[in-house]
Amino acid sequence: MLADSEIGVVLLSHGSRHDNANDGLYEVAQALRDANRYRAVEVGFLQRNFPTIEEATKACIGTGARTVLLIPYFLHSGLHLQRDLPETVPLLKAMHPGVRFTLGKPFAHHPKLLDIVRDRIEECCLDVADTEADEGETAAEPHERPSPNRALRSGYTTGACAAAAPSPRRP
């Protein structure tokens, strides 16, 4: 078994153009640092943000880590986990001989993920109950609801609700 004092952890993320999109990742990294279990905990991005995976790895090694655990902060095993990150590991090994690297798994098949999803469902149920109670107590302005026959706006790939997006202007 490895001594925790030899381990560096790099939380791997895609990166985002949105200013606050990585806040949760930084909070997790800080909580791991605060636990003082590992020699170093860094965040590394595939694209759009800094530090890069190579820079984060170098920072871990610079603290004396002899093993670097590359932990994907990804839900599912998409293209980055199937191709990009596995191709990165041999490059890191070549750049840092004598350092061990291990690539972790995505969150998708972890048994605790179901608990998280259940928690989110319960939160939504509470929100619905609160909304129903509020609507019953006050005479709120009627909400404009989109027509059920309205065409969905296409082009969303990030999980945004296409039905809520403004319709493109048609000639």
Structure explained in plain terms:
By secondary structure, the protein is an alpha/beta fold. The chain has a domain at 4-103: Rossmann fold, CATH 3.40.50.1400. Helices cover 38% and strands 13% of the residues. The chain is built from 4 helices and 4 strands, in the order βαβαβαβα. It has helices spanning 23-34, 53-62, 79-95, 112-137, and strands spanning 7-13, 40-45, 67-72, 100-103. Strands 2-1-3-4 form a 4-stranded parallel sheet, with helices on both faces. It is elongated. The model is unreliable at 152-163 (pLDDT under 50).
Secondary-structure map:
Elements: E1 7-13, H1 23-34, E2 40-45, H2 53-62, E3 67-72, H3 79-95, E4 100-103, H4 112-137
Parallel strand pairs: 1-2, 1-3, 3-4
- Average pLDDT score: 82
Q: Give the overall form.
A: elongated
The radius of gyration is 22 Å
Low-confidence stretches: 152-163
Short key terms for the protein model shown above:
single chain, 13% strand, elongated, Rossmann fold, alpha/beta, 171 residues, 4-stranded parallel beta sheet
In brief:
The chain is of the alpha/beta class and 171 residues long.
